[in-house]
Automatic annotation (TrEMBL):
Pfam families: TonB_C. Residues 26-117 form the TonB C-terminal domain. It is found in: Cell inner membrane. Keywords: Cell inner membrane, Cell membrane, Membrane, Protein transport, Signal, Transmembrane, Transmembrane helix, Transport. Belongs to the TonB family. It is a single-pass membrane protein. Its main location: membrane. This is Energy transducer TonB.
Amino acid sequence: MLRNAALTLLIAVSLTACTSLEKDDEIQSANQIPKNGAPIYPKESRNTGEEGTVFVYVLVGKSGDPVEVKISKSSGFKALDDSAISAVKSWKFSPARNKGQPIEAWLNIPIAFKIEK
């Protein structure tokens, strides 16, 4: 029954922290690039009905590449957490900017693994 279930991955990005800013600084948050691939829903997790949301904390470098990636809140399932981390490490981002110049910034990305029946 679960083998044929469709996977819904809801990926939203929110800026959670950045370098310290002065009152008059102009900041644009880092963003995902839409072409990033969705994490793989592990087969065993799908077969056993594991679902959950993984919050991945990523430091986006000035180049838009992930510098550091870690779990900020687990889904409760190691396989789902590992899949989310692996995907985010391969993603490309548009870096945050301060007064037009790229800066490093942290993003907290919720990735929901849900089996649609």
